[in-house]
Design goal:
111 residues; alpha+beta; three-stranded antiparallel β-sheet
């Protein structure tokens, strides 16, 4: 989302503001009702500041235009702004999941 190579006063280390999936959508079958499908296709996101040394670089990225302005380093300072940013991320992830694009992104990593 946003990178700060030199750090800041609150976080004096190089860090990035990232958004990801905390709880992945569950498996859906054809026999399930609409209400059950809706419940099982929910996504729980997270938005946090992570040190560069704790990030594992991969070749996978996902660009979502709606989240760039909503999630910044300043929005994570206050609880209400953090909740609003998380809701924006959740809406973007839900839209992307329901459209069927980037199916690989919505599957949990298996180590």
């Amino acid at each position: 989302m946003q990178t700060l190579d030199s750090g800041s006063k609150a976080h004096p280390f190089p860090h990035a503001v990232v958004a990801g999936i905390d709880r992945y959508p569950m498996k859906i079958t054809r026999r399930m009702s609409k209400a059950r499908v809706h419940r099982r296709s929910r996504v729980k996101p997270f938005v946090k500041i992570i040190n560069y040394t704790h990030i594992m670089p991969t070749r996978y990225t996902l660009e979502l235009e709606g989240m760039k302005g909503a999630v910044t380093n300043d929005t994570l300072k206050e609880r209400s702004q953090r909740d609003d940013a998380r809701h924006v991320v959740k809406k973007a992830f839900q839209d992307r999941f329901s459209s069927g694009k980037n199916r690989w992104f919505f599957t949990p990593l298996r180590f």
